[in-house]
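Q&A FORM
Asked by: J.P.
Topic: structure of Putative glutamate--cysteine ligase 2

PROVIDED:
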Amino acid sequence: MRTVGVEEELLLVDAESGDPRALSTAVLALAERRAEGESVFESELHDQQLEFATEPRSAMGDLAEEILRWRAEAAHSAAEAGAAVAALATSPLPVSPSIGEGERYRWLAERFGLTAQEQLTCGCHVHVSVESDEEGVAVLDRVRPWLPVLLALSANSPFWQGQDTSYDSYRSRVWGRWPSAGPVEIFGSADRYHEQVRTLVGTGVLRDEGMIYFDARLSHRYPTVEFRVADVCLDPADPVLLATLARGLVETAARAWRAGEPPEPVPVSALRMAAWQAARSGTGGRLLHPLTLRPEPAGDVLQALLAHVRDALEDSGDLASADKALRDVLTRGTGARTQRELLAGSDSLRTVVTECAARTRG
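REPLIED BY: S.T.
REPLY: Here is the structure written out as tokens.
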């Protein structure tokens, strides 16, 4: 059974007004004290963010429990600092983000200017274990067409600087400003993958391998494939669904590789179209089908994804729960829909943020 881990980035906000608060240093110190020096929380590029990472898990129930636990712990530590945490991929309210402390963050701010300054975005990263770099690159080559579907499932960033962007995932549009972000070509081998990474770092545009921001990549820290395409999700059930589908995609791709089946030769330009469509409409409209690249109802494309990974999910015992979770998302919508419904009911973006913080706290 492949293990799965999830990293979530959370927004630090004022508990009453909903305004983003630059309190990561204080919250991290409080979290470390609460955990007696072994905190799972880390800083991010901006002081208005907090990140945690789960342990590698084989059972999705264990992963779900851990996500709930660390969201609650983050909320407790933030409350001690006079703030709250919200699982929002962008701030609905206007904000002037502040860059965090440390040489790396200062380098990013100087090197990338406004692009770095405006990157107050919160994502969800899913790590799935692989046996080798060769298997990992074979997986990357074969999951490419399905990554926009994961983006649509996670869409949770309709607002930016106080405005409705008309996108369900505007975070992905902002994140795409980094020079190494987005979909990539088929590599064919681990050697070619690593050669490409060395070439990109060698240009001097990127500081190091940690800035390889592909939609999915080999982790430079763990023996995993890291899916980086998703927004942080408002409903805590959704990162579990993402992890379930990501593991199914990895196992399905690895089996195809071992069977000698080649990856689908989808051009990067078409993948960019599919990612744009997923960011624009989420699960509420049409998506580009990964195999035909033609627009189809989102529900049909989600069912195509489930069918694609069905055998792997049956073998891991996750098929029934994944099927139910997919139907739940289609019924209630993603975080983007929830945020817009909250705004429609209150006519206040501040209420949107404070209600989402309450839901994050659980």
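FOLLOW-UP: The radius of gyration is 19 Å.
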